[in-house]
Structures are given as structure tokens and as C-alpha cells.
Amino acid sequence: MKILTPDLYFQSIVDVKIELLKERKIKGLIIDIDNTLVGWDVDLPTEEIIRWLENIKHQGFKICLVSNNNRKRVELFAKDLNLPYIFNARKPMRKNLRKAMKILETSTEETCIVGDQNFYRYTWRKSYWSYNNTIKAYKKQRVLVDSLC
Q: In Å, how far from its chain's centre is CA 105?
């Protein structure tokens, strides 16, 4: 089903091109942690992920980490990244995804979700948007991209 299919796939989140985000007029990224930035069993961001996040921020993109995991896990991961975060987000429920957009000060048209689940597209499209900006990743960081607008 097209509604559940992301717009683009990448092998790793670090393969997501900044130019692609700029072409889509994306200004904010809502990024999941587990099985997206790192495997669910990795406590801290890798150097490669830190460099990628720093580059994205340097290019002017805003980032908010949004995880279904607990406070301890998310705070430990985010501690040295200097990024806002939401723990126990209960995704795909929209409440905390909207909260993340408020933190980012971005609209649906300017926001991209980075995660490991296809259901974001269905949940968001069904109630608010005509299509999603979702970047999908798995444990070995297979990534997909969709838009929220």
C-alpha cells in the first residue's frame, strides 16, 4: 500500500543527504533513537552519529529526539548531544510528535520523522497530512524518508 510506503530508503541514517532535506524544504527532524540512530542495545551515540548530528545542526536543521524508551535511557543517550528530547513518547500517538514540532518551531511541511517504523506514515496521514516525511532505519540502519505534509 502506497500509504504505508516511505518516499525514500537509505542504507544508513548517515547516508541521508542534506541536499535532499533542503530540496524538500525540511527545517526540523524528529529522530528516534533505538534502531534508528543506533541499535536498541547501544547506550551512547557513536562517533559517526555524533558527527552526522553535528553536521545536520551546523547546516541549520533543528533536531528533537523522540523515543518510546524510558527517561534513563533517553537522558543517557542525549546527555552530551545538546539536543531536546522526549521520552516515553508513545509513538505513533500524535501528541508527542506535535510536541516535538512545537519544540522545533516547525510546521508539518517543514518537519521530517526519522524512525524505524512504517506506521508513522499511516497514523499521521490518516488524521492530518496528505503525505509524511519519514526516514526509516533498522538495527543495521536501513533508512527510509517520508514527509509529513
A: 15
Kindly list the structural domains of the chain, giving each domain's residue range(s) and its CATH number in brackets, ordered by start. Answer: 2-145 (3.40.50.1000)
Beta carbons of 125 and 133 less than 8 angstroms apart: no
C-alpha cell at 20: 535532499
pTM of the model: 0.82
Q: Element (H or E) spanning 29, and its range?
A: strand 28-31
Q: 47-99, pLDDT tens digit by residue?
A: 999 999 999 999 999 999 999 999 999 999 998 899 999 999 887 777 888 89
Q: Collect all residues with Cβ–Cβ distance below 8 Å to 84 and sequence separation of at least 6.
A: 63, 64, 65, 100, 103, 104
How far apart are alpha carbons 133 and 117 in whole angstroms? Answer: 12
Give 49 or 119, the one with higher predicted confidence: 49
Cell of 77: 543517550
Residue 89's nearest CA partner among 5, 147, 33 is 33
Q: What is the rounded distance in angstroms from the CA atom of residue 41 to the CA atom of residue 20?
A: 30
- Pick from 23, 73, 70: nearest CA to 44: 73
The amino acid at residue 9 is Y
